[in-house]
Amino acid sequence: MKTPLRLLNLSAFIFLMPIFFPLFAQDADNGLWTSVDIKKKFKYGLALSLSEEYKMKDNFSSTDKLESTIDLSWKPFSFLKGGVAYCRIDKYQQNNSWELRNRYIVYLMGTYELGRFNLSLKEKFQQTNRVGVVANVNKSNPTNVIRSKFELDYNMKKSPFTPYASIEVFYSLNEPDGIQNPAATKMVTEIRNAIGVEYSILKNLAVDAGYLYCIENGWNKDALGNDIGDYLKGYTNVLTVGLSYSF
Questions:
Q1: Backbone torsion region of residue 132, taken as left when φ is above 0, otherwise alpha when ψ lies between -120 and 50, otherwise beta
Q2: Within 13 A of 156's CA, how many CA atoms are on the CB side?
Q3: Judging by beta carbons within 10 Å of its beta carbon (0-12, 13-18, 19+), is residue 131 exposed, middle or buried?
Q4: Which positions ≥6 away from 244 have C-beta within 8 Å?
Q5: What percent of the chain has pLDDT over 70?
Q6: Which label site among 58, 103, 189, 225 has the fewest CB atoms less than 10 Å from its CB?
Q7: How far is CA 75 from CA 45, 109, 116, 170, in A?
Q8: What is the pLDDT of residue 149?
């Protein structure tokens, strides 16, 4: 049993390495994401959760988004869970206005326990509709994205702390190509690396704190001309704080 655990420890170290190096990246924005989540569990593995998120950007000086999500999930087995969700997003604009976005989600998540480690893989499809926005060569609407998230948790013996690390890849199915068809290009648009720790205050009440590093790949609208354009990369350091309650 020691050998598999040693291999897993080595895998975890390799997995965490790329998370720490981006801390030294320059020209990165700094943000804060806070959340409150309430979950009601029912019989037969059913659960309903409501969450509110507030996100800041521009070095903690400006509101980015307000997100409200309702999620209905079903866990038929201890290692498998699926669900559907709706998210209302209010995106703050530079002209002091708000853009409404409606997001529809379906997902499937599998988990596997190995000693005190818990591994999970979550596959999510989301469609986001931007109200009042017309699709063109610079932007698609709606946007269809597949998100793949791998997470590694460690259950510390007789401790309320649960450290974790994760990586999530966003793959857009219809990112605009800047030439003709806004549904022509399929590409990785974002990668999120995260580390953090969850602290169980009570059996059904927990607080979460962590650090998340985002690498975004967006269309450079200023590079259009002669049917040629390119993509710009953006980097964001995010502090995350969350509170969750289940009953």
A1: left
A2: 10
A3: exposed
A4: 36, 37, 38, 39, 205, 206, 207, 208
A5: 81
A6: 225
A7: 5, 9, 21, 24
A8: 98
CATH number of 2-246: 2.40.160.40
Give start and end residues of each alpha helix (H) in the chain. Answer: 2-20
Q: What's the confidence (pLDDT) of residue 227?
A: 45
180 or 121, higher pLDDT: 121
How many whole angstroms separate alpha carbon 128 and alpha carbon 246? 28
Locate the DSSP E strands across the chain.
Answer: 29-41, 46-57, 62-77, 80-92, 98-114, 117-130, 143-154, 161-175, 185-202, 205-219, 231-246
Query: Count of alpha carbons within 13 Å of 50, Cβ hemisphere only?
Result: 3
pLDDT digits (tens, 9 = 90+) for 42-95: 999 999 999 999 999 999 999 999 999 999 999 999 999 999 999 999 999 988
Residues written for the chain: 247
Across all residues in the chain, what is the average pLDDT?
Answer: 87
Could you tell me the residue ranges of all domains in the chain?
2-246
What is the three-state SS of 126-142? EEEEECCCCCECCECCC
Picking from 239, 242, 241, the residue whose alpha carbon sits closest to that of residue 60 is: 239
- Say how far apart CA 235 and CA 57 lie, in whole Å: 12
Q: How confident is the model at residue 218 (pLDDT cuts 50, 70, 90)?
A: confident
More confident residue, 73 or 219: 73
Write out the two tokens for 42: 């029912």
